[in-house]
Amino acid sequence: MLQRLMSFSRRSFDSLSEAEILALAISSEEEDSRIYAAYADGLSATYPASARVFEEMAAEENEHRRRLIDMFESRYGGHIPLIRREHVRGFYERRPDWLVRPLGLEKTRAMAEQMEEQAARFYQAAEARASDPGVRKLLGDLAAAELGHEKLARRLVETHTPDDVRSEEDQAERRQFILTFVQPGLAGLMDGSVSTLAPIFAAAFATGDTTQTFLVGLSASVGAGISMGFTEAAHDDGKISGRGSPVKRGLASGIMTAIGGLGHALPYLIPDFLTATVIAICVVFVELWAITWIQHRYMETPWLRAALQVVLGGSLVLAAGILIGNA
Questions:
Q1: I need a labelling partner for 52 at 20 to 30 A (CA). Which of 112, 214, 240, 303 fits?
Q2: For position 48, which CATH number holds?
Q3: CA 227 – CA 218 distance, rounded (Å)
């Protein structure tokens, strides 16, 4: 609703004069150049070769801005009105680079491609509205340049990031994803799934009451999730280990811990004890096999070893809970 109200205070693109269109193009090129420079800065530490790609793209956008300023000054004088994207109704917007950090390699390349496509459409629409021959020529040239930036980016990638370098960068990105999300999430899922087995099934078989069992499972899962999340976030700030943001790791660990316990606690919302227990045991084996798959897929643990570690261990804890509950 707020965005709709704000849009009424903006100008429509069709209402802009030729000078205003040039001013909008100047501010847009300046912003795009800054975004590419920020991408280069954000990638430089981990992906230096790809960072150089964005440095050259930033330089290209600066050259476009210079040409636009020269054209504006030759036609309309030295005072360039400040017109930004957010001043024009329905115009595309850019997300500040600090909103998308940390910068993933493929995500950044995809965002850059989208930026060039949007810029090309703008110049095509601007060229159609311009009447001055020199302005029309410049806008048409810039539209063609933006359309060609995809090819430019590919050439820059080939120059700065040959196959062996890209392979190394992709491996580094995958490793960072595993360290920040998969590893703490997997630890949380294992802890939540296995550590809550004994208390939940002990409560189930000791009381025979599905409501009480669910409350035990809920409290155990949420408590374990909070504990694991804070522990993961507090014990390593990621600066030396390179494991990434402690907040992201803590959230991944805490959420997956809670999910691991809730998976076999939720069936006890079913009033019938036997039905709830059978479903809960089935859920347990699904969870254990999911953990095995994640270990094999991301941690490259052999299937047999992962199955023995997870399924056998979980089954023993489950059996312990049932035996304790029946004691």
A1: 240
A2: 1.20.1260.10
A3: 14
